[in-house]
Design goal:
The structure holds three protein chains of three kinds.
Chain A (H helix, E strand, L loop, with lengths): L5 E10 L2 E11 L5 E5 L6 H9 L8 E4 L2 E5 L11 E4 L11 H9 L11 H7 L15 H14 L4 E5 L7 H18 L2 E6 L2 H7 L2 E6 L2 E6 L1 H6 L4 H7 L3 E9 L2 E4 L3 E7 L8 E6 L12 E10 L3 E7 L5 E7 L11 E4 L3 E6 L3
Parallel strand pairs in A: 3-8, 3-9, 6-7, 7-8, 13-19
Antiparallel strand pairs in A: 1-2, 1-4, 4-5, 9-10, 11-12, 11-14, 12-13, 15-16, 15-18, 16-17
Chain B lengths: L1 H4 L2 H23 L9 H39 E2 L3 H7 L8 H12 L4 H10 L13 H26 L3 H9 L4 H12 L1 H17 L2 H5 L5 H10 L4 H29 L15 E2 L2 H32 L2 H5 L2 H33 L2 H10 L7 H20 L8 H4 L3 H25 L3 H9 L4 H30 L2 H6 L7 H10 L3 H27 L5
Parallel strand pairs in B: 1-2
Helix pairs in contact in B: 2-13, 2-16, 2-17, 2-18, 3-7, 3-10, 3-12, 3-14, 5-7, 5-14, 7-10, 8-9, 10-13, 12-13, 14-25, 16-20, 16-22, 18-20, 20-22, 22-25, 24-25
Chain C lengths: L1 H14 L7 E6 L4 H14 L2 E6 L2 H11 L7 E4 L2 H9 L10 H6 L9 E13 L6 H4 L16 E2 L6 H14 L1 H14 L8 H9 L5 E5 H8 L5 H8 L2 E3 L10 E8 L6 H11 L2 H10 L3 E2 L8 H7 L12 H5 L1 H10 L4
Parallel strand pairs in C: 1-2, 1-3, 5-6
Antiparallel strand pairs in C: 3-8, 4-6, 4-7, 4-8, 4-9
The chains are: A alpha/beta, B mainly alpha, C alpha/beta.
């Protein structure tokens, strides 16, 4: 534990006198790790970044970076002395400087380490060349956001904090930037915390993801685990992928649902036989089989390019999502019957 | 927490608010004092007259400034016609004419044997013209004087609101099949309403505070009533009682203005969805009428009073040598410089304090401290003297100290203090609106990039606020150049400004002699307006 | 450098309060160019600096009252005896404005030990010779202005005007408050228009045909005739003639410009020296030729313009003490207001 790069221990995060997130603890092990904080808007993700940056104070717990306490009840190192960069979500460019000067201010930062980042390269990949001579009021919101990101990157901080860095960037351009950003960050070993409400972005960029819900850090784990082993109903609802259906545990490796029958697989957590549980059913858990005798009625079909998501209605009025590859031979119309392959097998059984 | 609160920001905001509260408190407390018995009967009739006159004046001025201000703003923002770019700018020159100088000009032109008479005589030979020349004096003359001098408030605010109205809004009207008039009436006007109300409230406040013109036409309003009650009846309590009614009036206006200004802000956001308007090119008759309207307005509001004062200066050249122009200019500039310096210093400290501390008490105090602008100068001056006299008698002397009266009454210090109270909101709001354009996250970015608070202030705030500061200095200058009642009551020995010289000449039956100082006042004010017109009229909010 | 300028500016805030010199401080409600010229002559002659604060009489008085014993004021100079009297009644003046020059040159009815008249003016009637016959005018008194024959023909200033207050105060003094009240009602009924404008405006109203007779002070007509106010006013002035009321009884209402010695005056000796100077033949001549007032001292003649246009040979009211103007001022205002005199 002692040698974690960043440690946050039992901190209540506050903004404007109100507690936004309570009793948070997490750590970033290695320099160069990327952490993503996910959660609905207004939940206090930004407050966490602001507090780490030193813009808000804390009354309990501690924030330690490189074995040095930067925030606690008694200690508060001023933001200008932390060497932490924060790229704000809203436009925070200096209005009286043009974009170029704004970005270069980042390189003027005192106490900087030896440069690992080339400003030119960043301007290149963030596609800022054309607007270098423009002033902040002359550029679009997306351009402003990319400029702020560039400014934060070139300052080469010990810790980089990005608040919804790509929320205003065009969708077409976003994925390209995500790729380059990830490469750049890992190449230059800049430890980064990214706040976002986009779970795909978080899963792609983060080596660890924190889910903040209801004033708490609900889960802090790597993206695979967060997705496949959500630790609470709230996390399931937030990621909004699967549904919870009632089931009864029948053995070490099976449960029973009234509509779907027997479901087999490996329990993530042990439940005694006969327990009434809620089983997490994700769209990819069920397989389509026209020949199956388990037929359910189609109530909705969403085309998602590479796949369809069908919504099926069970006799007990549950609505179940099912994933089907879009190359599948034929499409099922609404009100048609849709077969599901039996026996149903789920790799990891997550119950609550 | 406690020690945190009592920092320099808090103390200076507290000091400023106290300065402003004192006159309000002095006025409110004396409301319950006995007034002298002798004039009891007179007072009842007077009070009614004062209120009636103030109301009539207010209604008259508001109606006229609405039509002049909104009409001209509409024409120059939506249409293209010969001279539109000139008028856009020229129409704000009326700010250089204080209502009292307009009043002098109006009287000088239309009076028996006045300028109108001379013109008719020169054109048509001797004749009995006096009876057929209309007389614009009394209430009617007063309404004209104030309206032509102040309509620019409505013009500027309405125009900037019209400018930010997107083409989409106008297209919407077309799409709904509205006529031009219907579009104006049911889309353009309501969308600009907050800005127009804000402009009208400013006009209303200035009207209620107006002293020079009201005094010149001997119309008894609440404001001159206060002055008369104090001076003629020697009845400070009654003066304060009238002030109380006036403040009540003004308080309502102040609220209206503040609320509308907050709403008006929404119109300034141009990000997204804004489509630059295409001005409609007028042709033929319409173009001529638009030109005529703007030209008449420009002529009546600026050229006419300027011309009258210029004519008199040339006609009675001996008056030119009677006043020491250099001395008056230096005095005026001295007051302007000193007041601007003090005002800007405190307004900067207070704004910066609000920004870094985000403290609610502090915010409340600064809101309070800008209310001085709503209080007419006459009341401020009277209340200031009353307070100093009371404070001197009851506190200073009883403690065995030397009298402080001379330090404050009839000194530049006293003048600057009262100017400060009256014009603080100009400085504060001017800097605040500059600050509002910089997101707080800009400061925070600066800290995170290693800038200290001081460096952030010097390298980020000050350069960015430079335009706002310049604008504020000009606004304060314009106000102080034309300020009358405070200067009149509080100035020291041998100290005159253009405004007081003009006023005294006019009030002592030597209107011709008022022309020279008036002319200089207009020219200096016009100069100041011209150098900042780009800022006032800028089309791009950047 | 910048800091020094700023500190100098701030220091200068206080500087003005502490000036001490051989000087005399005047609260001045007379704003004639001629007065300023006289003051600088005085400074040249005596080395005493004259400090002026100009303003309307009421505001100046108020400020002296509020400043109280700490006021720097030495002399209060104003153009109406009623003001000096009322100011004295408030206890704001002091006795001691006495010198051999004052005693020998100023008639007793125009001075007290608190204040002294320095120039005279009469408030008279102007008429249009075209519309008013000699018979109508003959024997005209202030009292007879209430006669219904003048209905709709009189132009006169507002009741708030100090000259009118003093005129009506003299009527209260001579005829009693009740009679003055009846008189005021009569005058209001005879007005050609609502009171407005200054004295010159009343004379011009007669010239322009708005009224047949007007009440105004003597020096205004001379001022208009002088051409200093332009050829139009000169032309207007030629259309009116002056008439001196009450020639058959107490004489025409006289008023003065007066200088009062302010209580607690820090430069009393200099103040008296200035008053003496204003009463010198040289100063008196300067007054008569420039402000067109009547001289206070014997041996100086009024301006030829005044002599020619008005005629000097008239009976001045020397029985009604000008001090009573201040004493009866409140009564005067009350009867005018009660009569609906705006």
């Amino acid at each position: 534990m002692a040698n974690n790069f960043l440690e946050i221990n039992n901190v209540d995060f506050k903004a404007g006198g109100k507690t936004k997130v309570k009793n948070v603890s997490f750590s970033v092990q290695n320099e160069g790790d990327i952490i993503c904080l996910l959660g609905p808007s207004g939940i206090g993700k930004t407050t966490i970044l602001r507090t780490i940056a030193g813009l808000e104070k804390i009354n309990n717990g501690s924030i330690i970076i490189n074995n040095k306490t930067i925030s606690s009840k008694k200690i508060h190192i001023e933001p200008e002395d932390r060497n932490i960069s924060l790229a704000f979500q809203d436009n925070s460019l200096f209005p009286h400087y043009n974009v170029e000067k704004n970005i270069l201010i980042g390189t003027e930062k005192k106490n900087k380490k030896k440069t690992k980042i080339n400003a030119k390269e960043i301007v290149e990949f963030l596609n800022l060349k054309k607007i270098l001579n423009k002033y902040p009021h002359e550029i679009s919101a997306g351009e402003a956001q990319r400029s702020s990101l560039a400014r934060a990157l070139v300052s080469n901080p010990d810790l980089l904090l990005l608040d919804e860095p790509l929320s205003n960037v065009d969708q077409s351009f976003k994925e390209e930037i995500q790729v380059e950003l990830k490469q750049l960050l890992s190449k230059s070993k800049i430890t980064t915390i990214i706040v976002t409400h986009d779970s795909y972005e978080a899963f792609y960029l983060g080596s660890k993801c924190g889910i903040i819900l209801n004033k708490q850090l609900k889960q802090f784990d790597d993206p695979y685990n967060v997705y496949h082993f959500p630790n609470s109903v709230e996390v399931v609802n937030f990621l909004n992928r699967g549904i919870l259906i009632p089931a009864k545990v029948t053995s070490e490796n099976s449960l029973e649902n009234n509509d779907l029958g027997t479901i087999k697989g490996n329990f993530v957590k042990h439940y005694p036989n006969g327990s009434e549980v809620k089983l997490l059913l994700q769209p990819e858990d069920l397989e389509h089989d026209d020949k199956s005798n388990l037929k359910l009625e189609v109530v909705d079909r969403k085309f998602r390019g590479t796949n369809f998501i069908y919504t099926l209605k069970t006799p007990s009025e549950l609505q179940i999502p099912v994933f089907v590859h879009s190359h599948h031979i034929h499409q099922h119309e609404i009100d048609e019957k849709f077969g599901i392959k039996r026996p149903i097998h789920i790799d990891h059984i997550v119950c609550f | 927490m406690f020690s945190n609160k009592f920092n320099i920001w808090f103390l200076s905001s507290l000091l400023i608010s106290l300065l402003v509260i004192i006159p309000i408190l002095t006025v409110s407390l004396s409301f319950f004092e006995d007034t002298s018995r002798y004039f009891d009967i007179l007072k009842k009739t007077f009070l009614f007259e004062y209120i009636f006159n103030s109301l009539s004046l207010l209604v008259g001025v508001l109606i006229l400034t609405f039509f002049l201000g909104v009409g001209s703003a509409y024409v120059v923002s939506f249409y293209k016609f010969p001279g539109v770019n000139f008028f856009k700018w020229a129409l704000i020159l009326s700010f250089a004419i204080p209502p009292y100088i307009y009043a002098y000009s109006l009287f000088a032109f239309f009076d028996n044997y006045g300028t109108a008479f001379t013109i008719l005589k020169t054109l048509f030979g001797d004749g009995e013209y006096n009876k057929s020349i209309p007389k614009f004096d009394g209430m009617f003359g007063l309404i004209l004087s104030i309206s032509f001098s102040l309509y620019a408030y409505v013009y500027i605010l309405a125009r900037s609101s019209f400018l930010y109205q997107s083409q989409n809004l106008i297209d919407l009207g077309r799409n709904l099949g509205f006529s031009k008039f219907k579009s104006f009436y049911s889309i353009i006007l309501p969308a600009a309403r907050p800005a127009i109300v804000a402009g009208l409230s400013l006009v209303a406040m200035e009207t209620l505070a107006e002293f020079g013109a009201v005094d010149f036409f001997s119309v008894n309003t609440l404001t001159t009533g206060i002055y008369n009650a104090w001076i003629t009846f020697d009845d400070l309590a009654f003066a304060n009682r009238i002030s109380f009614f006036l403040l009540l009036f003004i308080f309502i206006l102040f609220l209206t203005e503040n609320l509308s200004r907050k709403k008006a802000k929404y119109h300034l956001d141009t990000r997204g969805g804004f489509k630059q308007k295409e001005k409609i090119k007028l042709s033929g008759t319409n173009s001529f009428f638009a030109f005529l309207f703007c030209f008449l307005l420009f002529f009546l509001s600026f050229l006419f009073p300027l011309g009258q004062m210029l004519y008199w200066t040339i006609k009675f050249p001996e008056n030119f040598f009677d006043i020491n122009v250099i001395n008056l200019l230096l005095n005026t500039l001295y007051l302007v410089g000193l007041s601007s310096l003090v005002l800007i210093m405190f307004a900067l400290i207070s704004n910066y304090g609000n920004r870094v501390s985000r403290n609610k008490t502090l915010n409340f105090l600064s809101t309070l401290s800008i209310s001085g602008y709503a209080i007419p100068g006459v009341i401020l001056a009277v209340a200031f003297i009353t307070f100093i006299a009371w404070f001197d008698e009851n506190i200073i002397k009883s403690l065995g100290f030397l009298s402080i009266k001379k330090l404050f009454i009839g000194s530049i210090l006293g003048l600057v203090i009262v100017y400060f109270v009256r014009f603080y909101s100009l400085a504060f709001n001017g800097i605040k609106s500059g600050y509002e354009k910089i997101n707080v996250s800009v400061d925070e970015s600066a800290y995170l990039l290693g800038y200290s608070k001081r460096k952030t202030f010097m390298n980020i705030h000050v350069p960015y606020l430079r335009n706002s500061l310049l604008f504020v200095v000009i606004l304060i200058s314009l106000e102080i150049i034309r300020e009358l009642p405070i200067t009149l009551v509080l100035r020291p020995f041998n100290f005159e400004t253009f405004a007081t010289t003009a006023y005294i000449s006019a009030s002592e039956d030597m209107l011709e002699a008022a022309a020279v100082p008036s002319l200089f006042l207009i020219l200096i004010a016009a100069f100041f307006i011209t150098i900042t017109s780009n800022y006032i009229l800028k089309e791009n909010n950047g | 450098m910048k800091k020094m300028t700023i500190s100098a500016l701030i220091l200068s805030l206080f500087a003005s309060s502490f000036a001490i010199a051989n000087e005399v401080n005047i609260f001045n409600a007379r704003h004639y160019k001629a007065d300023a010229e006289l003051y600088s002559k005085f400074t040249t002659a005596t080395g005493i600096k004259v400090n002026l604060i100009n303003g309307k009489a009421g505001a100046l008085e108020k400020r002296m009252i509020e400043e109280g014993a700490d006021s720097a004021a030495d002399l209060y100079i104003t153009a109406d005896a009623g003001r000096c009297g009322a100011f004295k009644a408030k206890g704001m003046t002091q006795s001691g404005l006495v010198s051999s020059t004052i005693k020998s040159s100023v008639p007793k009815s125009f001075r007290t030990t608190h204040w002294v008249g320095v120039a005279k003016r009469a408030r008279i009637v102007y008429y249009s010779p075209e519309r008013v016959s000699g018979a109508e005018l003959s024997g005209l008194t202030y009292e007879s202005l209430a006669d219904p024959k003048w209905k709709g023909r009189i132009a006169i200033r507002a009741s708030s005007n100090i000259y009118n207050k003093s005129l009506v105060a003299s009527l209260v003094k001579n005829n009693g408050k009740k009679a003055a009240g009846e008189w005021a009602k009569g005058v209001v009924a005879n007005m050609a228009r609502d009171p407005k404008g200054n004295d010159r405006a009343q004379i011009m109203a007669v010239a322009a045909g708005e009224a047949d007779i007007a009440v105004a002070n003597t020096y205004y007509l001379a001022l208009m005739l002088s051409g200093n106010k332009g050829p139009e006013q000169q032309e207007a002035a030629k259309k009116v003639k002056a008439f001196f009321p009450n020639q058959n009884d107490r004489g025409t209402h006289m008023n003065i410009s007066c200088a009062a010695l302010v209580k607690g005056a820090p430069n009393k000796t200099n103040a008296i020296a200035l008053v003496d100077f204003l009463l010198s033949p040289e100063a008196q001549e300067h007054f008569t030729n420039n402000t067109f007032e009547f001289p206070m001292i014997a041996g100086v003649s009024p301006s030829p313009l005044v002599v020619n246009s008005l005629g000097l040979d008239f009976k001045q009211d020397l029985t009604t003490s000008v001090a009573s103007y201040g004493a009866k001022q409140a009564d005067a205002l009350e009867v005018m207001t009660a009569a609906g005199w705006k």
